[in-house]
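Sample intake sheet
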Amino acid sequence: MKLYNHIIFFAGILLIGLTGCDESAILEEVPLDFASPENSYITFSDFNAAVYALYDQSRVILSDGEHRPLDYIYGTDLGYNGANQLNVRFGSYLATLLPTSGMVEFHWRQYYRVISGANTILNRMENSQMNNEQKTVIEAQARLFRGFAYRNLAHLYGGVPLELEEVSSPKTDYVRATREEVYLQAAQDLTFAAANLPGITEVRDGEINNLAAYHMLAEVYVSLEQWNDAIEAASMVINDPNTALMTERFGSLSSEPGDVYWDLFRRFNQNRSVGNTEGIWVWQYEVDVPGGAISSSSKIGPQLERDHAPRPWSFIVRDPSGVAPFLPQGVSDYTGGRGIGRFRGTNHFNYGIWHYDWQDMRNSEYNFVRDVLFNNPESVWYGQKISDHMPLFRQSLDDTIRYFYPYQSKVTTPGQHPPELFVDAELKLLNSSTAGTTYSDQYHIRLAETYLLRAEAYLGNNQLTEAASDINVVRSRANAKLVTPEEVDIDFILDERMRELGVEEKRRLTLNRLGLLYERTNRYCEGRPDVTNFGVDVQPYHNLFPIPFSEIERNTGAQLVQNPGYAAE
């Protein structure tokens, strides 16, 4: 049974009355029949509802919608904004990464909302009706989310204020802890969570477990350069008898042409309940189901298809008879569903990383789509490859940057789009511009990443043979050329993360924690040749986000120091 995410809203009211003629007498009523601060955190069920809210808040930051979750991939070595938008989606760093930008404020506030929710849970456990066992599991869940939030804040902003208590009145004297102190707090929370959360076989699909905590703990230890601790934490995940990379065809379309890597991303294939031993923590999604977080009539849920898949359905070139070669609106095939072609991969992502081994399974025709067939039966080009006509298109168009380009099929669901989206059941025309969701559950932590994380720790510990061995476990599954210890460095690991994780990864978190956002983006995010600001105006100080100006302004009781490079507003 899936874990669906629900938000509980706490509404409170204080009733104050006067008794007799004594104006100093105050009647304090504790409400019994509606939700309030006094009665909302009493039972185990109450606390579970509050934990569900933490799931929802975290998913909103990292997975739901076409804006904020995609802040983690735009303007990196992975890809850039190809839609002529210099002022949004990192079309230009100098225009978008500012202390006053809504994006900067959003991530700050959302992570602190998770922290605030966790602190409230932790503060109110003592006076609850829960037994000790229930308190322990609730504390472990709350501390995992708090550790997760502080980890990501440290990756993005560096040192941030540490708040470990429930705040019940306005506070305006926050000061920044160091980045190391924030990581140490995250490690403390995640250590408790790892020791006290249930095992991965004891939880429902999508529910946090001890291995998710160990994975995040390993990443924090890598950030602290505590290599042995990182290796030990990652090994807890890798060596667990209930985890393994998927190496054989499986799941909903295993009888169709494809491979095991392709199977990982088909609908209904992500969870342990269907035999997937690779997913460690998977965001749960259903279409038009209460709590399922996807609607067929609005742009919510994960929007990787919408942004990363191209838009041949609006191709402006016509065949010799004047007919559009692609069906309109987007089709449930390899042309990309209802993509709009906004996030385009860098040449390094599309081509450079594959030169090491072009036959790598992850670069197969099923997984990295580089050519498609025209799908309009009325066109004289029907069934022909787009590549056969590219010279003509380049003559007819100023740029084909959004109509078609190489993309990862993991962002879409060819042949598996929900029937609610189809105008015609036979032709499978997608119904509207809202149909750009990636209609599958989404990996938040996958075992392949744990191997690459441990390889990073081995590299830091100067254990190159062990680092190469971990990388080769992942590469072997892809039937790819094995790497030698002498070839392993941080650039190889980052390239391997690209090959394995691609747009699935929250790339900005990885590059920011390593301090390599500027170096890698400046090197690889070349953008269009006729536009100079598609990511290439990134500066060294962009390795960290600015502290939001709104937070500095309202913090009147102490100085909240801005990160270097960002001018005071």
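Comment: The first strand starts at residue 79 and ends at 81. Confidence is low (pLDDT under 50) at residues 4-30.
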